[in-house]
Amino acid sequence: MLVSRASRAVHRALGRGGERELHFGAADTRRILFVLATDPWSRGTLLRHAAVLRAAGLDALAIDPAGGGFLVGPDDCLVVDASDIGLLARRPRPQPHVVVDGDGFRTWLRAAELSAHLEDAPDLRAVVALSEYTAALHALALPGGTVHQVRPSIDPAQFHAGPAPGERRVALLPGGADDAARVIRLLLTAGRLAGWEVADLTDPAREDRAEDLRRCRVALALSHQEGLGRGAAEAMASGCYVVGYDAYGGREFFDPAYSTPVPTGDVLAAAEGFAEAIERDSVTGRWCRERGLAASQAVLDRYSPDRERADVLAAYAQVAAAAGTG
């Protein structure tokens, strides 16, 4: 697996933890250095990108800024998550770098820090966005700048439809807890949830999350703003019929052919959409299953490892041309 190869390529200095910072030296190297983020999903994304480039024969490494002891040469290209822009503030010289952004909403809340960096960063080689929406945000902010989209892969070995229809369970996905509570209370009061169980799957780090999603027939996605909408995408990949908000970032995969997208914030439409799905499914017991299988196939195709690999090679082509071989 590419991720395991990348894991072996991670440079970890002796010692445990410490302040997260980069150390700049005079090494005569031309490497692509992926600075690992603290967020597990962002960290995994950077590891996969590094693995793709290493498999292509490039000198690409993943480094942990908490480890210390690793010197960045003047011709090395750093790849940092948008949440780690601050690590570049103390660079003593122009340093080629790429910014990877998985959630434009969260990134542009740090507008002062980010804007100051982007306005005065002639050494910025590109922004790599993980969704169409986030790419469009950066394209607006950086007219004439280089912005690429790389679709993050969803591991089909982990997230996939099960061999049988899910149980009469509805999964509550990360984000939108207040709206989810409103939808459930509305339908409970109306007596429309008889025989259905509510599963709280709002923790994205839950280890058995994929298996729990396969046990669910429907999922409610009610987060208002998502850079991509990973929770909804993983639920679809697992065979769930998803009802809810595309949260803007999910527009690229929230297809009414196999889901029920409703306007963001419209609790009534979400409740009605969920109730309709329950009613339609009650006739044969397979209405949600058939659409969930179509959703799984579409999402796993769109966010396949092969597509991510192709996107990575295209996005880092300019950087790769100046890098050494591994």
Structure, described:
The chain folds into two domains: 2-153 and 305-321, Rossmann fold; 167-302, 3-Layer(aba) Sandwich (Rossmann fold). It has helices at residues 2-9, 40-55, 104-107, 111-119, 132-141, 177-189, 209-214, 230-237, 267-284, 287-302, 305-315, 317-321, and strands at residues 23-24, 32-35, 60-63, 71-72, 77-81, 97-101, 124-129, 147-149, 167-172, 197-200, 216-221, 241-244, 260-261. With 326 residues, the protein is an alpha/beta fold. It has a six-stranded parallel beta sheet. Helix 8 links the parallel strand 11 and strand 12 (241-244). 38% of the residues lie in helices and 16% in strands.
Fold blueprint:
Blueprint: H1 2-9, E1 23-24, E2 32-35, H2 40-55, E3 60-63, E4 71-72, E5 77-81, E6 97-101, H3 104-107, H4 111-119, E7 124-129, H5 132-141, E8 147-149, E9 167-172, H6 177-189, E10 197-200, H7 209-214, E11 216-221, H8 230-237, E12 241-244, E13 260-261, H9 267-284, H10 287-302, H11 305-315, H12 317-321
Parallel strand pairs: 1-4, 2-3, 2-5, 5-6, 6-7, 7-8, 9-10, 9-11, 11-12, 12-13
Helix pairs in contact: 1-2, 6-9, 8-10
**Percent of residues in helices:** 25-40%
Large-scale geometry: elongated
Structural class: alpha/beta
CATH topology of the largest domain: Rossmann fold
Number of strands: 13
Short description:
The protein is α/β, with parallel strands linked by helices and about 325 residues long. The chain is built from 12 helices and 13 strands. Helix 5 links the parallel strand 7 (about 125-130) and strand 8 (about 145-150).
